[in-house]
């Protein structure tokens, strides 16, 4: 899988949009359930995701799980995860560490986010295996189903020998007390 230079314009667009959106930020709906900034990283939720990936005609169905870690900053969510891919006579296994920066906008029922992540991508083509590291540029939207369940939809653009494009839909179940 070859890296696509088209991911760089997306990165620049996301970087340019973050400062503009920062002025319109309101606290995310889950703010009270998160540790105060600087109190340390802690587990907040776990969940699953499914989706599709595409790269140079190599298309796969994706299924995975993740956990949400909070506490470094009220707008920062760390989301380590594992994703399995099936299709095109190959099986893939992707280990990710994503950092998502929430961009909540007042009076909106959803939050937008942008971020980046590291990916360790394993591919098995009929017994022949490869290992490829890469970087993901992420954009997404998230909202509440109820006071304990949150959904998210995201797009990832890959840099390096990882999938060029991923489209994911997922959920997170908060541990402990319900969100206010």
Explain how this protein is built.
- This protein has 180 residues and is mostly beta strands.
- It has a single domain, classed as Beta Barrel (Porin).
- Helix content is 9%, strand content 61%.
- It contains one helix and eight strands; from the N terminus they run H-E-E-E-E-E-E-E-E.
- It has one helix at residues 7-22, and strands spanning 42-55, 58-70, 76-87, 90-104, 110-125, 128-144, 149-160, 165-174.
- An eight-stranded antiparallel beta barrel has the order 1-2-3-4-5-6-7-8.
- Strand 1 (42-55) and strand 2 form a beta hairpin.
- It is elongated.
- The protein starts with 6 loop residues before the first helix and ends in a 6-residue tail after the last strand.
Order of adjacent strands in the largest pleated sheet: 1-2-3-4-5-6-7-8
Question: For the record, what CATH class applies?
Answer: Mainly Beta
Query: How would you characterize the largest beta sheet?
Result: 8 strands, antiparallel, barrel
Radius of gyration: 17 Å
């Amino acid at each position: 899988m070859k890296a696509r230079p088209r991911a760089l314009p997306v990165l620049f667009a996301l970087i340019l949009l973050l400062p503009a959106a920062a002025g319109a930020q309101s606290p995310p709906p889950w703010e009270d359930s998160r540790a105060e900034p600087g109190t340390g990283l802690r587990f907040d939720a776990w969940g699953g995701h499914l989706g599709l990936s595409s790269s140079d005609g190599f298309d796969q169905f994706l299924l995975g799980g993740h956990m949400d870690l909070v506490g470094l900053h009220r707008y920062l969510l760390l989301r380590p995860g594992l994703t399995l891919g099936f299709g095109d006579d190959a099986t893939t296994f992707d280990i990710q560490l994503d950092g998502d920066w929430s961009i909540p906008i007042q009076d909106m029922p959803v939050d937008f986010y942008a971020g980046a992540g590291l990916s360790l991508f394993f591919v098995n083509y009929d017994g022949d295996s490869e290992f490829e590291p890469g970087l993901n540029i992420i954009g997404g939207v998230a909202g509440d189903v109820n006071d304990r369940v949150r959904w998210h939809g995201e797009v990832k653009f890959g840099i390096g020998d990882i999938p060029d494009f991923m489209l994911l839909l997922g959920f997170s179940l908060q541990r402990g007390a319900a969100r206010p």
